[in-house]
Amino acid sequence: MKVKTILVSQPRPKLENSPFLELKKRRKVKIDFIPFIHVKGATVKEIRLQKIDLTKFSAIILTSRYAVDHYFRICDKMRFKVPDSMKYFCQSEVVALYLQNHVVYRKRKIYVGKRTFEDLCPLIEKHSNENFLLPTTDKLKPEVPKLLDGLEISWRQSVFYKTVISDLSHLADVTYDILVFFSPSGIESLLHNFPDFKQSNTRIAVFGAITKKTVEEKGLKVDIYAPSPKFPSMTMALDNYIAKANKK
């Protein structure tokens, strides 16, 4: 079956040269962007209930841009001035560069991992005398605490923001040829909003092994998968699928 419409379960890209927008032009398909989940920041009361004292930490572990924003949001609300001596351990260069929105980059001690949390661990281990805070989501990957515990360091996790299911009721009478998911939470949102969802002729595209497993556990079929050696990105996998489907 030909592909004419695609729904990506994420916010619309801010850059006009986004691979998704280039795919839209090249294949002449309609692509809508609607986040199936959204992030809600924790309140000061919720942070205090976790018995977190911001003054006790000398280093912050940042795994995402959300973590950056919500850490500084809470600091501001609690009127805590982050000391210049604070050390920042960023999971990737993207997170480290984003940190510039909140601190004067050249005046801070910033340590950057390559990509995965495991890549960051050796840097954290070299500073084992620090007291680390990990501001995170309520859906933290289980391997992260295991890795930190294995380093024998002083650290605390605190939920600074939560992943919340979006209201998708406005899509009740809308159908798409392809639905694109990047996380298990997106699948959960789909089935929460539409418990009677039937896949029928809708193709499902997923990114990542965990998301793929979630789709299959829910009794649905994965039609398009990334990353793979041949298609390292979702847009490349979609492009290949659309090229074949629309030739028929």
Mind sketching the topology for me?
Layout: E1 5-8, H1 19-27, E2 30-33, E3 37-41, H2 44-49, E4 59-62, H3 65-77, E5 87-90, H4 93-98, E6 109-112, H5 117-125, E7 131-137, H6 143-150, E8 154-165, E9 178-181, H7 184-193, E10 203-207, H8 209-217, E11 224-226, H9 234-245
Parallel strand pairs: 1-2, 1-9, 4-5, 4-7, 5-6, 7-8, 9-10, 10-11
Antiparallel strand pairs: 3-8
What does this molecule look like?
With 248 residues, the chain is an alpha/beta fold. It contains nine helices and eleven strands. The strands form two sheets. A six-stranded mixed sheet has the order 3-8-7-4-5-6. Helix 1 (19-27) runs parallel beside helix 9 (234-245). The termini are close together.
Main attributes of the structure:
248 residues; alpha/beta; five-stranded parallel β-sheet
Helix content: 25-40%
Could you say what the CATH architecture of the domain at 40-163 is? 3-Layer(aba) Sandwich
Query: Tell me about the biggest sheet?
Result: 6 strands, mixed
Supply Rg. Answer: 21 Å
Class computed from helices, strands and strand pairing:
alpha/beta
Strand order within the widest beta sheet: 3-8-7-4-5-6
- Count of distinct strands: 11
Work out the strand percent.
Answer: 15-25%
- Which parts are unreliable, with pLDDT below 50 for 5 consecutive residues or more? none
CATH class category of the domain at 40-163: Alpha Beta
Question: How large is the count of helical segments?
Answer: 9
In N-to-C order, the SSE pattern is EHEEHEHEHEHEHEEHEHEH
Return the average pLDDT rounded to an integer: 94
Shape: elongated
Cα(first) to Cα(last) distance is 8 Å
